[in-house]
Structure formats: C-alpha cells, structure tokens
C-alpha cells in the first residue's frame, strides 16, 4: 500500500533509533555520549568485541565501521527481525502510537480480492489433507513413509493428496458455496476451451502447499504417483496470488529461522527442503521447478546476505550453479554474496541425509566454497593450458566475468583472488623447477647471471629471509602518521586503508582503530583521544619517530590538500611494492632450496624492475616537498644504529 507524504518522517521522528537498536545491543557508555544522541556498541550484524557500531539519534541512522551495515530504524527492524518493510512500518507505528493510514479504494478492493482467493486456497489445503487419510491415498502414504516422512512431518508441511478423479476438489468447493470463477482464478481448476465443465488441475498427486512470507497459501505443488505422468512435478499456474518467479518454498519459516542465526540453505525441490528442515536445518528454501530468477535471488538475499546454494551432484546441478553465478555477478556487493555446497555425484540433500545423517550434511555445508572459487572452477576444469594462446584465452574469460561486477571495490578483490589462483595453478612444482637459463646468451643489452652463487649474495637479508622489510615498515608508519595528523582525510582514504593490511602488529592495531573511528570528522590533531589504549600508544610511538617527524605532511597539519597528495602517492607505492612482493618471496624460497645463482639473478632483475617502476611513479608525480637532506640524515642514523643488520641466529 502507498503511504501519504510525511508519514514515514513523522514515524521516524516519534521513535528514536537508539530505543529500537538498544533492545538488540549493549551500549558502550565509555564511548557513547547519551546527551548528544551519540551511541556506540558491538555490532549486532557480525561477531566482534569492539564497539564499532554507531547510532546517531539526531540523524536517525546507524553504521558499522566493521561490516559497513547501515540504515535507519525501519531497515534495522527489517534486518534484525526478518520483517518486510510494511511489517516494520506497522510495528513502528504501534510504538509511536500512530494510526496506519487508510487504504485507497482500489488497493482495498485488490486486497479483498486476494483475501478471497487465499480463503479458497485454504479450503483446498483442508480438502487435500483429509484425502491423504482416505483409502485412495494408500500408495501415497506408503511412498511418503518410504521417504522417511512421519505423521508429525506431514502435519508440519500440510502435505495432502489429490484423488485421481476429474471433479473431486471442484465438487467439494462448489458444494461449500465457492463460486466457479474463484476456483478457476485460484488456479485449482481448468476451464475447457469448448465450454465444458471445469475439471481439477491436480489429480492423482501428492500435494505440497506453497505459502508466502505472510503465511498465505498462494499455490500448490503436486508430485505424480503415476510413473507415466507427463510431468513428475506440477505447480499451480500464475495467478493474482502466485508469481512463480517471485516465490520460494518454505520462505516464511526459513526467514524466521535465519532470524535465530541459522544459515540459509537453498535446495532444488520440496523433498530436499523437507528433509533439511527435519534434520535440523530449518532455514531451507527452494525455487519452484525453474532456475532461480533475479527476483528470487533478491528475495533470498533479503532473508540472508550469504546463503549456501546446495547443488545436486550431477552435471545438471553444476550447470544450474553456473547459471546462478552469472545471474549473481552484477548484483554482488560487500553485503550480499553466495556460497556453493557441491554435493557428491548423483546425490541431493535428501540422499546425503539418508546416507550420513545431519553430520554429513553439516560437513558439506561447512565446506561450501565462495562464488569466486566456482568461477575459477568453471573457467579451468577439464581444460589444458599448454600454450600462450590458451592462457590468454583464460585471461580474457576471467576479465569478461570481472567486468560484470558493478561494485568497484569488490571487483578489485575478485581480481586479486583470481590472480592468486592463477599463480598457484600455473606455478611449476618445485621439485621439477629448473634454474632459469637464457636462450640468447651474449645478446646486446643482456647480462647473464654469474655461474656460481656469491658469498655476498648468500649473506643478504633477502636470501636468508630473516629480517623484516624496513622500507615497507617505514611506509606504513608514514601512512598512519599522515592520517593521524589529518583525520579529515580518513573518509576519503577509507577504502585504501581497508585494503592496506599492515604487516607490523602494532601498525595493524592502529589501522583497525582508525577504521572504527566515528564518521564525524575530528579537528586536526584531535584524533588520538578517540582511540583505545593500545592504538593510542602506537600512535604516540609512530609520531615520535625521526623519519615521521621530518615528513612535511606530518609537520604541516593545516594543509590537507598537500597531505592528500602525499597520502595518495604513499598508498600507490605500497600497493605497487606488494604486487611484486609475491614473486620475490617465491623466488627467495626457490633460492633457499636450490642455491642457484640464476635465481639470485632473477631476484636482482625483479628488484630492479620494481625500482624502475617506483622511479617512474615519482617522476610522473608532482614534487611533494620531501625534505631530502633531513631524510638522508635520518636514514644515516638508522644505518649507524645497525637497523639494517640481519638478526643473528
């Protein structure tokens, strides 16, 4: 129904968001400022101990700096109580003492029409349930017992039986005073084109009622008892009540179970859902005989942000998973994704539960793989990449898939993970890896590697791999110091800070604390008091370092624009260096085992390549005003204090 202008604003103004959220969280009163309507608590949407969940009563919004959940009072009710939007509005209206607005005449007429059809459907449910206990349903009862469904399960899912006659339901409903038009419009009977007497749509079938999230019976699914029936499963047709592409079997109970922290499992059919629920997996749903549609996928995500798709262990099941993956890629975000549970070959969830019980099914669900893993599997499984052309074709397919992801940050993370998978996939086994030898010895501009490993090379920090990367540690310190000196830049560089996981433990503590700071921008130099004790101590330590004190963007705290340029450059250098670091680490491991100077030569070439890239970056960027004399002095001090000497064993 439509709501009059201003109704929702009045609703939000009457009920403070903190009063609603406060029922689900425990406020951190050391960090909160109740007088200003500023509240902090551990986030109710993900497991954490720190108070990174912020509620602002004045603005009426919440935001988590950890999982990035955000919204207003109505969204909070929808997310935590698994309510629909209008349900949340009605709940909040009762809280506020407001009367829900009257429905417009057309909407009321349509709602009344749907109510009438739903009543007809409920009459059919009762009829089918009664028929399951009749003599004509003995074979159906035997089949259900054979599938492990006891009387309690039959009652829970309201399973019934449609007699194998043309007019059993028709006679029952018309005899109860239901008009012919309503029976036909509800999809329960078919009117012949020749004007003959309508006949029952479901005949000789086990009946599964399909209910919407409000609990109304909107359709039926019927399984044929005759093995020669044209369709093993038959669903109700599209009606005013039922839209197959927007409905899910068991959606209402699954939503309630997810509200109690049960993981959502998406299976293929009715029997799979029933078997899962009876085995303790109450949050189970299924599409209705077709591939999952975009509307169903959005509906699934409204129930759970990361459902597990249980794929039947056959080729058709895998193809269905690939179709769903392609459908999901453009819709993915940090808040909604999919995981895929690949079942054993020729088995569905019901088969798994029969063979191994709930423990076997739980083990498979725990091993569900992320969507990116299924994408990699599709593009590589059963293929041979023995030529540059085939590898290039793989690159092209992966790029095409990544192009469908609209979320830029998420696309970047997918690309990084696919690069990692490619590296691991194509890396030769170490036992068979031979030293690199050039084919064009003596070519112009080519420097061949020495014949034997040099003692000086063996003594380097890189060869021994025992010392930390001093340059990277200093860059981390500069980045953190600039953010501490210019907290107004935190929002602008939040994505970079999330990506730049710090290698030093103290740096990582400070990074996490900066990510958890409130959205309101503190004044320059006023950020440290907002940090918890470990992070505040680390901030003090970093700001007192010599190479940090002499950095111009740290000394000049009034010029945010200059600091922005410096920070952008430092993040670029950090990410560039780490992009090369993987190859350096792998080569270092090889060198430790093979002690071959060809590998030493590879290290030198990779390092020089990186240095050229960094020099190119510096030449292309504006002069950021580095005090090079002071920096040289600080570096000399570090050298004299033996910072660069590797730790002795």
From TrEMBL:
Its EC number is 2.7.7.101. It holds the Pfam family Zn_ribbon_DnaG. It catalyses: ssDNA + n NTP = ssDNA/pppN(pN)n-1 hybrid + (n-1) diphosphate. One of its GO terms (molecular function) is DNA-directed RNA polymerase activity. Keywords: DNA replication, DNA-binding, DNA-directed RNA polymerase, Magnesium, Metal-binding, Nucleotidyltransferase, Primosome, Transcription, Transferase, Zinc, Zinc-finger. It is an enzyme of class 2 (transferase). GO terms for cellular component: cytoplasm; DNA-directed RNA polymerase complex; primosome complex. A zinc finger (CHC2-type) spans 43-67. Residues 262-344 form the Toprim domain. CDD domains: TOPRIM_DnaG_primases. SUPFAM superfamilies: DNA primase core, Zinc beta-ribbon. Belongs to the DnaG primase family. Monomer. Interacts with DnaB. RNA polymerase that catalyzes the synthesis of short RNA molecules used as primers for DNA polymerase during DNA replication. This is DNA primase.
């Amino acid at each position: 129904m439509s709501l009059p202008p201003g109704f929702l604003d009045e609703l939000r103004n009457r009920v403070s968001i903190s009063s609603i959220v406060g029922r689900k969280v425990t406020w951190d009163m050391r960090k909160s400022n109740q007088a200003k309507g500023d509240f902090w608590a551990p986030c109710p949407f993900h497991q954490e101990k720190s108070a990174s969940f912020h509620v602002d009563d004045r603005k009426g919004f919440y935001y988590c700096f950890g999982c990035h959940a955000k919204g207003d009072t109505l969204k909070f009710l929808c997310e935590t109580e698994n309510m629909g939007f209008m349900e949340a509005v009605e709940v909040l209206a009762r809280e506020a003492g407001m009367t829900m607005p009257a429905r417009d005449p057309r909407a009321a007429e349509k709602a009344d029409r749907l109510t009438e059809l739903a009543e007809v459907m409920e009459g059919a449910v009762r009829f089918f349930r009664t028929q399951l206990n009749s003599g004509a349903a003995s074979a159906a009862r035997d089949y259900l017992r054979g599938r492990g469904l006891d009387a309690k399960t039959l009652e829970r899912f309201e399973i019934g039986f449609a007699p194998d006659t043309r007019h059993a339901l028709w006679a029952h409903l018309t005899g109860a005073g239901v008009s012919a038009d309503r029976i036909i419009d509800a999809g329960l009977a078919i009117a012949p084109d020749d004007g003959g007497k309508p006949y029952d749509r479901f005949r000789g079938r086990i009946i599964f009622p399909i209910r919407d999230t409000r609990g109304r019976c909107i359709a039926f699914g019927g399984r044929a008892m005759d093995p020669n029936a044209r369709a093993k499963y038959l669903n109700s047709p599209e009606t005013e009540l039922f839209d197959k592409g927007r409905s899910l079997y068991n959606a209402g109970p699954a939503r309630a179970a997810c509200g109690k922290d049960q993981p959502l499992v998406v299976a293929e059919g009715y029997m799979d859902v029933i078997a899962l629920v009876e085995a303790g997996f109450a949050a189970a749903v299924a599409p209705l005989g077709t591939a999952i549609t975009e509307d169903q996928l959005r509906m699934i995500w409204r129930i759970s942000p990361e459902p597990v798709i249980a794929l039947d262990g056959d080729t058709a099941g895998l193809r269905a998973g690939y179709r769903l993956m392609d459908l999901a890629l453009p819709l993915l975000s940090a808040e909604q994704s999919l995981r895929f549970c690949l079942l054993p070959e020729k088995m569905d969830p019901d088969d798994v539960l029969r063979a191994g019980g709930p423990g076997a099914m739980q083990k498979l669900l725990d091993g569900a793989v992320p969507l990116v893993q299924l994408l990699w599997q599709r593009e590589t499984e059963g293929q041979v990449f023995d030529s540059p052309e085939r590898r290039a074709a793989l690159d092209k397919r992966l790029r095409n898939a990544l192009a469908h992801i609209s979320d830029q940050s998420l696309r970047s993370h997918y690309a990084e993970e696919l690069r990692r998978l490619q590296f691991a996939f194509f890396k030769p086994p170490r036992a068979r890896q031979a030293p690199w030898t050039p084919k064009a010895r003596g070519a112009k501009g080519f420097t061949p590697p020495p014949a034997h490993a040099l003692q000086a090379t063996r003594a380097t920090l890189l060869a021994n791999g025992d010392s930390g990367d001093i340059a990277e540690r200093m860059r981390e310190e500069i980045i953190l110091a600039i953010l501490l000196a210019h907290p107004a830049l935190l929002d602008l560089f939040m994505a970079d800070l999330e990506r730049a996981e710090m290698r030093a433990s103290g740096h990582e503590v400070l990074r996490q604390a900066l990510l958890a700071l409130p959205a309101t921008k503190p004044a320059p130099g006023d950020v440290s008091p907002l940090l918890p004790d470990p992070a505040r101590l680390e901030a003090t330590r970093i700001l007192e370092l010599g190479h940090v004190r002499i950095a111009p963007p740290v000394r000049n705290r009034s010029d945010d624009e200059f600091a922005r340029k410096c920070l952008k450059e430092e993040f670029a250098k950090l990410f560039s260096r780490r992009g090369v670091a993987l190859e350096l680490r792998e080569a270092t491991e090889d060198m430790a085992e093979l002690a071959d100077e060809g590998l030493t030569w590879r290290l030198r070439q990779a390092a020089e390549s990186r240095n050229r890239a960094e020099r190119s970056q510096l030449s292309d960027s504006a002069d950021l005003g580095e005090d090079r004399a002071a920096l040289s002095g600080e570096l000399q001090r570090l050298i004299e204090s033996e910072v660069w000497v590797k730790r002795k064993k």
